[in-house]
């Protein structure tokens, strides 16, 4: 006589097969609807984008990807490494980005953040997209 675990496995098998079939149908339907109704990415034209920690690593990569998608926008970089800031600004300007602004801002210092935010708002305008990327190294 079969033990209890083998009976449980045999009893669950049809449900698992049914689940796999339904999941495969779901995947195909999702692909079909993505072809019929493609998602158009939001245009970055004219946006003001602030990237904290934007001079190194992932932040710099974010800035590069933004620059690949659109040139008619403003990218603001806040970082603590002045040398990396100037290198990133030069790189972004060479790709044709219209406005690249940068400042040495330590985002762990509330006073620096408030002062820098006031300058950004006064001179550039409201930030429409924020990438909080700064970290502790």
TrEMBL record:
InterPro entries: SDR_fam
One Pfam family matching this protein: adh_short
GO molecular function: oxidoreductase activity, acting on the CH-OH group of donors, NAD or NADP as acceptor
Swiss-Prot/TrEMBL keywords: Oxidoreductase
Annotated family: Belongs to the short-chain dehydrogenases/reductases (SDR) family.
Name listed for the protein in its UniProt record: Uncharacterized protein
Natural source organism: Allacma fusca
């Amino acid at each position: 006589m079969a033990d209890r675990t083998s009976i449980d496995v045999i009893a669950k098998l049809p449900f698992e097969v049914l689940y796999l079939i339904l999941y495969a149908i779901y995947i195909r339907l999702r692909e079909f609807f993505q072809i019929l109704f493609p998602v158009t990415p939001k245009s970055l034209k004219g946006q003001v984008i602030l990237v904290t920690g934007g001079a190194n690593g992932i932040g710099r990569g974010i800035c590069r990807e933004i620059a690949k998608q659109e040139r008619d926008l403003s990218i603001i970089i806040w970082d603590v490494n002045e040398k990396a800031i100037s290198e990133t600004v030069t790189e972004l300007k060479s790709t044709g980005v219209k406005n690249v602004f940068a400042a040495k801002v330590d985002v762990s210092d509330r006073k620096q953040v408030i002062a820098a935010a006031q300058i950004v708002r006064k001179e550039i305008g409201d930030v429409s997209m924020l990438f909080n990327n700064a970290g502790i190294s």
